[in-house]
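Continuing from the previous page of notes. For each protein in this section, the sequence appears first, followed by its structure tokens. Read the first protein now.
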Amino acid sequence: MSQYRQTGNYLYLIGIVLVAVLGGLLFGYDTAVISGAESGLQSFFRSASDFAYSDAIHGFTTASALIGCVIGALLSGLLSARFGRKKTLFIAAILFLLSALGSGYPETFFFKKDMPCLALLVAFNAFRVLGGIGVGLASAICPMYIAEVSPAGRRGRLVSWNQFAIIFGQLVVYFVNYLIIRSHINDPALSAWTAQVGWRLMFVSEAVPAALFALLILTVPESPRYLVLSSKDDAALKVLSNINGEARAREIIAQIKETAVEKKEPIMAYGFMVIFIGCMLSVFQQIIGINAVLYFAPRIFESLGVTDNMLFTVIMGIINITFTLVAVFTVEKLGRKPLLISGSVGMAIGALSVAISNVATLPAWVPVAGIMLYSASFMFSWGPICWVYIAELFPNTIRSQATAVAVAFQWVFNFVVSSTFVPLYNYSHAVAYALYGVICIVAAIFVWRLVPETKGKTLEEMSRLWKK
């Protein structure tokens, strides 16, 4: 009797994916925690006596984690190819944990508590960069790992769950931030409490999911495609048999071997276009401006006249979750391209309606609805589908390198958008949103003309597609 399963176990696959998407949840949590903490953080460092905490410095501090995201993304290819996907995700979990504790209490070991100074700001940013490295690693490896364990017919949906986890992580931290503020809402000295304690609690709260991820990632198997590329066929066959059944598992291993004669090929082995398209998908996902809205949501709603801006941020998070589920349940039916194109159009309408409301006298609900439409359209399109493409677009032998480059491009432009949003927004609300709206239209044209549909194709078929 064979030692391998004859039929696949879907629950086994779901268990693996649920653990992997915790990395996505931490990705969302870490990048969005700043939205609630940034005002308290600004007040704290503005009381420093040895330097002036300017808006430019605050913009950099708000976006400093993104520097780490670029570093983590660039390292992801090297680490995942050398140590495997599983060990790299464990490293990311430890970085998340250290960053959460260090960002909340950067004074630990070296500084006096509640004594803001330039050196303390440097320490805070160092901890945020550390967490950013974890985000960069998780953002590249989580969808890659899920794609490499998933059957072709379920891959798009399962990778989309990673985006759901990212948005759910953002919703969780919005809610946590809201509860932290609400706990002292009747305190006359709320602003002072937020500047001294509130922002610290927001950052430290991430330690709980980070520790859970570090423990659970040890229980999942290594990616079977990485195992084959590392000449560990028996281990790969065991994992694939548990997911697909032995007969199909042997077919998949044969296909992997056909497309992976060597463990590595030059990144341009399949031509320029595959790298260009992968990188431009990442670039467009950022320059359409979504993270500027997510990071500064409370401030944006306040400027639109919303009284309880943190509550509206939570409402937006719930809407984001709902529309991410639209992508999860339609990506295998409708395909990748239709979702990207329709989402781009919806984002353009939402962004341009906000721009128009800033130059014309319109009811307050119009720009609020525009922001919600803009965000919701992203959540069923560029949010999940970009990650699906990055996870499945590249051939096996260049996937680690190409994914690292594409994700690094994403974080570079995330930093550009996030660090320029405040001065651009302060210069002109209308110009900011008009610019994002026009870019959304360009993104739709790019997808329509250049991006191939990958629905239903195996990862091994990507090699044949690009060789053509």
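Done with the first. The second protein uses the same format. Note its length before scrolling.
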Amino acid sequence: MAPRRRLARGEPAEGKTLLVYGAPVAILRFPIAPGASFVSTGTIANGTLRGLPYAGKDTYEVSVDALGLVVLPSLAFTQAHRVRTRVTVAPAVGTATTRRQVGYFFECFAEVVRVTSKADEPEENFITAAEVRRIGF
């Protein structure tokens, strides 16, 4: 029987995760304006994922495609920018996966809503979300 590995204080049972990009990655560029788009890539060379070595590349495809009203239960934002992001996570070994995010940004508040798709969602206008976040008071 193999000896049990001792966990460092605060380390989860499945092992430590530390994934650091070699250089900063732009996920939003200013000024934010409809029609703006860009691609940004982050590379991880000597990462750790659940206690195992990890290397890979994450690609962010970002576009600002609308400006309008966002109504939430306790407040409304006029002139909110809709920002669509397609994130592709490509490990050095294994299969790449993608997720889509639709975020709404408003001046002085930053991101007020984010909706994230399930993995490998093909549709830009997806209807089933894996996660929804919103500002609330």
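What the second structure shows: The chain has one domain: 37-134. The two ends are 53 Å apart (CA to CA). We return to this in next week's lecture.
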